[in-house]
Write a structure and sequence with these properties.
Length: 307
């Protein structure tokens, strides 16, 4: 392999992620010529409506996959949480990189944490998952839609459109913007999105040469955790319209523990399940936690969110 084309979204965070993959590949093969191709996806263009109403997170992915199918690029770099729970069979995740901090964080105007925000404070997020868990913590808050790249969201906060916003720690850290963070939410307070903080490299299923090359970047512990979380998501329908959260961690060298949570959008009902299992069978663990959520009443919340 003498040259490689990487397709990416054009946001600063997405391009940072593509550059990281490029750097890792060059360490393996310094003679490799690598080009990064930026594409502005539909999801990046339509910022005045929620993702759930316009097709979900797949809108960030389809244009990149088109470039792979047309041989305009060899690989696509994604935030793993943007990938649909079920991939088009023409594609595969060839490598999952080591996970960054999976937690959510609060960024506020005057360095207030969640408990210090005034009553009825406006908090920005377009994630139903964050909204439901936030309202479960403080039902008095007013949640207002917030979309755009990291810098755009921070600018809206600075313009006082919100008193606080919720973001992923990983994005802020990758862009060296962690100084904005006022509060980290521990998973017991706000469980992260499925696969939050992990990066995925996608390619065409039949591109065996590329898949073989990318195995050197594959981080097995992260992959095991992410596969458990994605199995949970797939079992519950894999839709971004669901306030679904999940996080798997290694509790022993060969044991994964997965916590899954589904909540009503208003935060008045929260169903949580935690289970452990062998790390060499993460899919079964994800399915087990999903089964427990269904037993706890998840079907009613899914019906509420998809009706």
């Amino acid at each position: 392999m003498k040259s490689l084309k990487i397709v990416s979204r054009t946001s600063p965070l997405a391009l940072w992620q593509a550059e990281q993959v490029k750097a890792k590949l060059l360490l393996l093969n310094p003679l490799l010529t690598i080009e990064i191709i930026g594409i502005k996806t539909i999801g990046d263009q339509l910022l005045d409506v929620s993702l759930a109403k316009i097709g979900g997170k797949g809108l960030f992915v389809s244009a990149l996959e088109d470039a792979l199918l047309k041989n305009e690029a060899d690989i696509a770099v994604h935030s793993m949480k943007d990938l649909p729970a079920i991939l088009d069979p023409a594609f595969t995740i060839a490598a999952i990189l080591e996970r960054e901090d999976a937690r959510d964080v609060l960024v506020s105007h005057d360095n207030k944490n969640l408990n210090e925000l005034p009553e009825h404070a406006i908090v920005g997020t377009s994630s139903l998952r964050r909204q439901s868990q936030l309202l479960a913590l403080r039902s008095d808050l007013s949640v207002s839609p917030l979309r755009g790249n990291v810098e755009t969201r921070l600018a809206k906060l600075k313009d006082k459109q919100y008193e606080a916003i919720i973001l992923a720690a990983a994005g802020l850290k990758r862009l060296n913007l962690q100084h904005h963070i006022q509060q980290y939410f521990e998973p017991t307070e706000m469980l992260p999105a499925i696969a939050q903080g992990a990066l995925a490299i996608e390619c065409c299923l039949d591109n065996l040469a590329i898949r073989e090359q990318l195995q050197a970047l594959h981080h097995l512990p992260t992959a095991a955790c992410v596969l458990a979380e994605r199995a949970l998501s797939e079992s519950l329908g894999g839709s971004c319209t669901l306030p679904l959260a999940g996080l798997a961690t290694f509790t022993t060298a060969h044991t994964l523990t997965l916590t899954g949570k589904i909540s009503s959008p208003d935060g008045t009902r929260v169903i949580t399940s935690t289970a452990s299992g062998p790390s060499n069978n993460p899919v079964a663990l994800g399915q087990s936690v999903a089964k427990n959520l269904f037993a706890g009443g998840a079907t009613e919340i899914i019906a509420l969110c998809t009706s």
